[in-house]
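step: validate -> pass
step: tokenize input -> pass
step: predict -> running
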Amino acid sequence: MFDHKLNLKEILATHPSLMRDLELVQDLNLPNWCIAAGYVRNFVWDYLHNQESNTPLNDVDVLYYDREDETEETEKRYESRLKDKFSEYNWSIKNQARMHDRNHENRYVSVEDAMSRWPETVTAIGITLDQMNNLEIIAPYGLSDLFELKVRMSPLFRDPEYFKTRVQNKNWLKTWPKLELIEQ
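step: predict -> pass
step: emit ->
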């Protein structure tokens, strides 16, 4: 059986800035954190498409889960600290303990639970470091769609029109022509 987690770790090991980026976030001491979404997805798609250079990122999504402090101001302070250390990225830090309100859903219980409500299965992938600085993967829908180059709506996401518009607006099918859009 093919081990997608091992394959993802091998691909990410070729990322020139991976450990620096993870260590920058780790230094914030956020509870239950990860770098997610396009940071992982785009890098893998670039790799699988044999792109010579990495597709530029709109932002770098950092998630964490902290019920003790759900203020947006705290997120902005964390973003500012990261921008001070590495200003080349547009850091976007969100506490998933408060994002259920914005999405008009029941409270999320973890970062993984929040990610499971994201529009696409291939976006709901995050990476973090464990206490021994080993790479850990968070992927509520697994990694098959990522490696099979399939873009499908997450089962818990409820807005198919938003999903289609998002895929179209992000221009994924042109940027990565091997992708296959799976419509429900």
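step: describe -> The mean pLDDT is 95.
step: cleanup -> pass
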